[in-house]
Amino acid sequence: MDTLHTYPIPVDSVAAKEINREAVLVVPERGKAEVLNEVGSFIWSLVDGKRSIEEIVQVLCANYAVEEGVARKDAILFLQNLADKGAIIFKLEPK
Question: In what order do the strands lie in the sheet with 22-27?
Fold first, then answer.
């Protein structure tokens, strides 16, 4: 599977709230809350099922002083971590 062209989608049961530029995610199935830093919160705001990971990377590069390769690697790891925690899923086509 071509990871960069998959579409991350929030899981319906996950509750999210932004507080002081940090997002708090509650994943009921795991009984856990995750606090995302400013960049993680920004990425979370882009996870809508309409943007591919590659598109998210491009937006990151346009908004932060980061090299594309670093942004790509970090975004993939971050999104995979959210998927492992049950906060998002990946689809092959946009929502």
Answer: 15-19, 22-27, 32-36
- Identify the bridge partners of residue 88 per DSSP, sorted by sequence position: 10
Mean of all residue pLDDT scores within the chain: 93
β-bridge mates for residue 19, sequence order: 22
At residue 2, the pLDDT reads 65
Q: Quick one: tokens of 39?
A: 């960049």
DSSP for residue 48: S
CA dihedral 52, 57, 61, 66 (to 10 degrees): 180
Sign of CA dihedral 88, 89, 90, 91: negative
Distances (CA, A) of 23 to 35, 41, 44, 68: 6, 5, 8, 24
Q: Are 95 and 52 in contact (CB under 8 A)?
A: no
Query: Can you give the pLDDT at residue 15?
Result: 94
